[in-house]
Amino acid sequence: MTDAPAPRPPLDLARLAVPEGWRVEVEEATPSTNAALAERARAGEEPGLVLVTEHQTAGRGRLDRAWETPARASLTFSVLLRPDLPPASWSWIPLLTGYAVQAALADRLPDIALKWPNDVLVDGGDLGAGRKVCGILVERVETDRGPVAVVGVGINVDQTLDELPIALATSVALETGEPVERTGLLGQVLGSLHGLQGLLDDTESLRRAYADVCVTLGRTVDVHLPAGDVRRGEALDIDASGALVVGTDEGTFTVAAGDVVHVRPA
């Protein structure tokens, strides 16, 4: 007989530190915060809204991979932004988001790092051994007032091993061995994302900061392409658009996040 899991308290909006100019709504259950926020954006919702769900039942990851979170075990939210950026700089938004989450969690998880383009890993010293603690999906949505970015973040906070979706996943609580107070953690992550937005205006500084915590660089990787081809090489750098530069015996090639299925250790 096993002990029943401890009750998971709801988020407490009264105690949440909300960045200036942003506003937060919490829903008990939502199929997808990205889909719900995109719909509201098309209907005229102003930027700065953060939509949080206590239980996401039909989340979507990159390449439309589906996932669900146990109720009150994660931080699952989407932020509506209207970046004043040239089109070429929009590709940096997912990388900035990953960097902001990594920065927010670094005091709790010293081994936290990034796997290109925007997976947040714990124990990432070996690209293949890193355990995923956060996934990110950024979508560009066209509205009557111009394009907006829907920035979706899912952080595994309190999941047990049995509740994790894949073997190479983890949660903040599993890594720290301590209960995690989700309201305070949400405020920390939102503050980091809000405070680091200015790096989108200085993508060279963002590129250097991102590269410093990206464990993909310097590793031999297999780049899996949509047609089924696999190209092997060394991940050399992040270029000015946020794409990955890979070196092979035949020369270098560059891949953008939208052009690959996986980048995995060789």
General description of the model:
This protein is α+β, with helices and mostly antiparallel strands and 266 residues long. The chain contains five helices and 14 strands. Strands 1-2-5-9-8-7-6 form a seven-stranded mixed β-sheet, with helices on both faces. The N and C termini lie far apart (43 Å).
Blueprint (SSEs and pairs):
Elements: E1 23-27, H1 33-42, E2 49-53, E3 59-60, E4 66-67, E5 74-81, H2 92-105, E6 112-115, E7 119-122, E8 131-143, E9 146-156, H3 172-176, H4 182-196, H5 203-212, E10 220-224, E11 230-238, E12 244-248, E13 251-255, E14 262-265
Helix pairs in contact: 2-4, 2-5
Main β-sheet description: 7 strands, mixed
Strand portion:
25-35%
The overall pLDDT average reads 91
Order of helices and strands: EHEEEEHEEEEHHHEEEEE
Number of continuous helical runs: 5
Task: Please state the structural category.
Answer: alpha+beta
**Main sheet: which strands, in order across?**
1-2-5-9-8-7-6
- Indicate the overall shape: globular
Unreliable spans are: none
Q: Summarize the amount of helix as a percent range.
A: 10-25%
| Number of DSSP-assigned strands | 14
Q: Please give the alpha-carbon distance between the first and last residues.
A: 43 Å
Radius of gyration equals 18 Å
Brief description of this entry?
With 266 residues, the chain is α+β, with helices and mostly antiparallel strands.
Keywords:
alpha+beta; 5 helices; globular
